[in-house]
Amino acid sequence: MTGESSTAESENPTASDGERVSEREAAADEADTRTKTSERDAEEGVTRRGFVRKAAGATAAAGAAGVVASDDAAAQTTTYRFGGEVAAWNGREPSDIADAENPTIELQAGQEYEFWFENIDGEPHNMTIQDGNGSAVVQSSLINSQGGTASVTFTATSQMSQYICTIHPTTMVGDLNVTGQVEEGGGGPSLRVLLLASAVLLAFVSPLLFALFLFSRRQGPGGGETTAG
Prior knowledge:
Blueprint: H1 2-75, E1 78-85, E2 88-93, E3 105-108, E4 112-119, E5 128-131, E6 136-139, E7 149-155, E8 160-164, E9 173-179, H2 191-217
Helix pairs in contact: 1-2
């Protein structure tokens, strides 16, 4: 009895040591799992920040491109300057119409132009662009005082025929020679509008794309969700 009791007592410490080893291994596995999870979360956090920065940069770039496109369009507007008096329209700028009376103006269909004038005799004048039927396409305000100015801005079309002061139509009138054709569908949205719309769309779509990106990262090779082991 004494020997059996002694043997049982010597086996108990061994069993206790085994349990402690198992507990240590389980704790080590749990710590390893937490470490891998933390590392994955940290990696995804960095990736998420990078993705958001890129998306924000793309949105800003698209918006900036819209502004640049608008500025470029404004820079392409061609301006003609005249002095207005009862006797005639006196060309001033550009240099090829300087000092010419009622000069013929060459225009390109689809191009934007500005016709500006200064009243130089104090009589009432306006600047009117007319079509071949004598109908006004665009018309400035009436300037009654000497030194006063006005202008019209328009996109040239083949229907435009002349520029004229409707108060003095027999003396203040010049021809417009429009070449080329405006492309079909020219009334569509401008480049600036398209770029800004793209920027707004990107701002809404980016979070969805990122969610799909994270979801794909969590999928294993066989399509199952990956877990830290």
